[in-house]
């Protein structure tokens, strides 16, 4: 059923200036052409030259009612997104208009496309390889410019190219082995290990190079989950807002968040920083509050970095200790474990807690004094976060190509096989 003709609205739901309906498959030209008229003319259906944008009105074939004025492009295979004949109809971007146009196209005999089916076809037709098809989703979903650049590189085949190089090296070794098996009498000797080694080493170096940047690459794509934790009233929500206000921050609200935990995305030098503001973490009898506590605990457990916030203007409270114990219980702050930054907030007020006190509570953790009120220390907090995020992987951006966990996993497996034993 691969070559039936599929159609779908290609632009997002909702109202926009223009909306696009995409039709792909062997029948797409014949299905769409009868719906189109030159404005003001009783013209017979005709197919405009390929890859040209043409002005037409689109009509309901049964009632002859004009549905919309459109720009339409007929694009002959194979130079199209799917490598099949494609028609793109640009109408006005109202959801009702687009649905009516789509319905007319479907009534002509097209089938409604499944999600991702256009991209699937480009993959199946060989225009995109799997890494490139995956990059389409990454490109659409990218949250920072750096992430977008990486997805674009992958889409343009840069990753596939490097993997191909490793493969070519391996084929060099395989060809020698197979030749000696296939032609044992024709004096093709069994290759010596020393002869095969250079090919294998070359392949391994390729794989290592890709793996080297992969932790960093995943950060650009997935971001860093940073939970802002602390007892009530120390300034967690204020800190979240202050970090988001900084000029580099792009603010993306995430749907489905509640009052209990709020998640926003800030842009930390290209790495999406998922900031999670939590409610308290202390056990409570109140069933409603308990949900908030559970969510906070889950946020803390799943975080990559914890910002443990204290109020410097008042003595440590019992509640601060409870939070501390809870975080320690989750393994934060231990050597080699996930990092904590101790934030001493309200530094604009007279201080009764010193940074040294916090350094004792969290040995080895960076301590940053901040004031969200007069906006001091925020830059330093950002620098500290950036250092932690980049720790151990100081890479130039060019060496970062791997952004997906699946690719990283596959490369690790390959690396294991290529390693000398
Ligand atoms: P949360 O409960 O930890 O989320 O704390 P909030 O962000 O809601 O802040 C609690 C109170 O502390 C609010 O009245 C804030 O205006 C105040 N606050 C937060 N940060 C600062 C600060 O840096 N300096 C001062 N003086 N007040 C602050
Ligand atoms: Zn709050």
TrEMBL record:
Location in or out of the cell: Cytoplasm
Record CDD domains: trmE (cd04164), TrmE_N (cd14858)
Residue stretches making up the TrmE-type G domain: 223-390
Cofactor binding: number and manner: Binds 1 potassium ion per subunit.
Binding annotation for GTP: 233-238, 252-258, 277-280
Binding site for Mg(2+): 237, 258
Record key words, sorted: Cytoplasm, GTP-binding, Hydrolase, Magnesium, Metal-binding, Nucleotide-binding, Potassium, tRNA processing
Cofactor: K(+)
Gene3D superfamilies hit by this protein: P-loop containing nucleotide triphosphate hydrolases (3.40.50.300), Probable tRNA modification gtpase trme, domain 1 (3.30.1360.120), tRNA modification GTPase MnmE domain 2 (1.20.120.430)
InterPro entries (UniProt xref): G_TrmE, GTP-bd, GTP-bd_TrmE_N, GTPase_MnmE, MnmE_dom2, MnmE_helical, P-loop_NTPase, Small_GTP-bd
A GO CC term assigned to this protein in UniProt: cytosol
Chief localization: cytoplasm
Enzyme Commission number(s) from the entry: 3.6.-.-
GO biological process: tRNA methylation; tRNA wobble uridine modification
Residues the record lists as binding K(+): 233, 252, 254, 257
Protein function: Exhibits a very high intrinsic GTPase hydrolysis rate. Involved in the addition of a carboxymethylaminomethyl (cmnm) group at the wobble position (U34) of certain tRNAs, forming tRNA-cmnm(5)s(2)U34.
Assembly behavior: Homodimer. Heterotetramer of two MnmE and two MnmG subunits.
Protein family (similarity comment): Belongs to the TRAFAC class TrmE-Era-EngA-EngB-Septin-like GTPase superfamily. TrmE GTPase family.
PANTHER family with a match to the protein in the record: TRNA MODIFICATION GTPASE GTPBP3, TRNA MODIFICATION GTPASE GTPBP3, MITOCHONDRIAL
Protein name: tRNA modification GTPase MnmE
Organism: Ktedonospora formicarum
Designated gene of the protein: mnmE
